[in-house]
Write a structure and sequence with these properties.
The protein contains 3 helices and no strands. The chain has one domain: Helix Hairpins. By secondary structure, it is mainly alpha-helical.
Length: 101
């Protein structure tokens, strides 16, 4: 049995769905960041699979940029989270109302 582009698309959809559920259900900011990273990786799997199917490297080049943006997002997000934890001593999203206008 050959692994086709449809297999990768189903895997990507499953990972993206798990990530969306993680963002919507969890209240811990670290878990939410992990769920966002899972969604970005699902998109990367889809991009690489379709780039291979179309025999075009543009999707794989775009994946490198998505990984760079994800790394920057994680660094900035964890920096904000660390500063918030030092002030409030919690990582619960419900108690982060200080950032509202």
């Amino acid at each position: 049995m050959e692994i086709t582009s449809a297999h990768y698309t189903v895997l990507s959809a499953a990972l993206f769905s798990i990530g969306v559920i993680g963002v919507l259900v969890r209240r811990n900011v670290i878990i939410i960041f992990m769920a966002i990273e899972l969604m970005l990786n699902a998109v990367n799997i889809n991009l690489v699979a379709h780039a291979r199917y179309l025999e075009n490297l543009i999707g794989q080049v775009f994946v490198v940029f998505v990984i760079a943006v994800a790394a920057a997002e994680a660094a900035v997000g964890l920096g904000i989270l660390l500063a918030f934890f030092r002030n409030k001593e919690t990582v619960n999203i419900d108690e982060m109302n200080i950032m509202r206008w």
